[in-house]
Design a protein that fits this description.
With 404 residues, the chain is mainly alpha-helical. Helices cover 69% and strands 0% of the residues.
């Protein structure tokens, strides 16, 4: 049973990685038919079919054999291209400072923001002084207050207009900022919406936010500080996000380089095959599996947080060699590592189940393998894992304007 559960976990995790990039890829991997395939087959069955002549059958068979040979050649070209691309990316991934600043657009000073947030001495003035140095976060907070659901009036019924960072921070309030700011920082890491991977951005955010909220809920239940669970969940995917950004950015440049190289070598067949290549979910997942967890750990270490001590949990996470909660327990890994492992497992289950990619029987074995017990399931089913809940009073005095 242990072997079969381990195999199930490995199979399902692979299916989940495909789901992050594309639901259709995960559906195909599960042996099911995509919606497009079902619609096409239904339309084919509705038409009057005629029997194929023997000559037509032979012609089709020949075309299939030719296509198979062409596909094998294309697969070889794709594999060789990706060996070169992955070698380039591996070198860039090792430069954590480059990834942090140039790929994710982070300044290490955000570690100070995160530290201040959870101290008793946290104040609007202290937050303002640091966030004023981070343009995108300043604009993000002001923009947040302008959403229709957060428009408020003062005690005289007059609309509150937010124009400055200090006004935005005062308007949102310290307690809500403790949830909002880490979410804004985490969301910035997401890869942009891409024509090649149109679902990647949304699926990664669903997984990231859900993991953060689940870790928060179970941390409180188990006597850990809620914000440690919340933040380790929210930042557990920044390695994946950075790799996706780097892969998509580097693909086209590397492809142009290889096409030009093939033409210079007077190899038009190779050049044509290269020109037909598209970003591949398979190779992106390979990069995730090889570098994702270690890069996340290295990036969070760059924050140099002294108060928000989540780094040790991510560092221990890189030591997990088996997809099994029993393994995590036997290795005496940090409690935050065990918490993250369990909550990621739950979110993987939740997303696969909601997309029809996991049976009831498989679900039970999968959850057990991740150390999720019935009490956890009850609590997490009652927890809103899909959206931020930021509470701002309906009526409040207008925020003070800094006149210094």
């Amino acid at each position: 049973m242990k072997l079969s559960v381990s195999q199930l976990a490995s199979t399902m995790n692979n299916r989940f990685e495909h789901l992050l990039v594309s639901k259709d890829e995960a559906v195909l991997l599960s042996g099911q038919k995509t919606e497009k395939q079902r619609i096409y087959e239904d339309s084919e069955q509705a038409e009057a079919r005629r029997e194929l002549l023997f000559v037509e059958e032979v012609a089709i068979k020949n075309r299939e054999e030719l296509n198979e040979k062409q596909n094998l050649f294309l697969q070889q070209v794709e594999a060789e291209f990706h060996v070169s691309l992955i070698n380039d990316l591996a070198e860039k991934i090792r430069d954590t400072n480059f990834v942090l600043k140039k790929i994710l657009g982070y300044d290490p000073i955000i570690g100070k923001v995160l530290d201040i947030l959870y101290t008793e001495s946290c104040s609007i003035s202290r937050l303002e002084a640091i966030i004023l140095q981070i343009d995108w976060l300043e604009q993000g907070l002001i923009k947040f207050t302008k959403q229709p659901q957060y428009r408020r009036v003062d005690t005289r019924g007059k609309a509150i207009v937010i124009e400055t960072l200090r006004q935005a921070l005062s308007f949102i309030g310290i307690e809500s900022l403790r949830s909002l700011i880490p979410a804004l920082i985490s969301k910035k890491a997401l890869p942009p919406r891409s024509e090649m991977f149109p679902e990647l951005n949304a699926h990664l955010w669903e997984y990231t936010l859900g993991t953060g909220k689940a870790c928060q809920a179970l941390a409180e239940k188990e006597g850990m500080k809620w914000y440690l669970g919340y933040n380790i969940g929210l930042f557990s995917n920044i390695g994946r996000c950075a790799i996706a950004k780097m892969y998509l950015r580097s693909f086209d440049a590397k492809l142009r380089e290889k096409v030009i190289e093939a033409r210079k070598k007077n190899n038009p067949v190779q050049a044509k095959a290269l020109a037909a290549l598209l970003p591949s979910h398979k190779y992106l997942i390979t990069l995730w599996n090889k570098f994702g967890n270690h890069l996340t750990n290295d990036l969070v270490a760059q924050f140099k947080c002294r108060w928000l001590m989540i780094g040790i949990g991510l560092d221990d996470y890189t030591r997990i060699k088996e997809i099994s909660y029993q393994y995590v327990k036997t290795k005496n890994l940090h409690p935050l590592t065990a918490l993250l492992f369990r909550c990621q497992g739950y979110m993987q289950f939740k997303m696969m189940k909601s997309n029809g990619l996991m049976s009831k029987q498989a679900s039970m074995l999968y959850l057990r393998n991740f150390g999720i017990v019935s009490d956890d399931v009850v609590m997490l089913m009652k927890t809103n894992l899909s959206s931020l809940e930021i509470n701002i009073p309906e009526h409040q005095p207008p925020p003070k304007v800094n006149t210094d």
